[in-house]
Amino acid sequence: MGILLGLKQHIDQKNGVSSDKFRDCIKYLRRYSAVTSIDYLSSEEISKITLDFLSNN
């Protein structure tokens, strides 16, 4: 749910997102989950991580 919320916020701010950028975001979250257990993060925290990645790349 957090990924979708972050994606929606980014789309609302920037009027869209490319499929390559979204794919890179998913790869980043997979690598992030290898270091940190994202099962214990709230959807707001995951949304922020997603939005930060999409905004900065």
Which properties best describe this structure?
57 residues; globular; 0% strand
Topology:
Layout: H1 2-14, H2 19-35, H3 43-56
Helix pairs in contact: 1-3, 2-3
Cα-based radius of gyration, to the nearest Å: 11 Å
Assembly type of the chains comes to single chain
Distance between the termini: 21 Å
How many domains is the backbone divided into? Answer: 1
Counting helices, strands and paired strands, the structural category is mainly alpha
Overall shape: it is: globular
Average pLDDT for all residues: 88
Low-confidence stretches: none
H-E order: HHH
Number of helices: 3
Share of residues in strands: under 5%
Helix content: over 70%
Major beta-sheet overview: none
In total, how many beta strands? 0
Task: Describe the structure concisely.
The protein is mainly α and 57 residues long.
Describe the structure.
By secondary structure, this protein is mainly α. The protein has 3 helices and no strands. Helix content is 77%, strand content 0%. The longest helix has 17 residues.
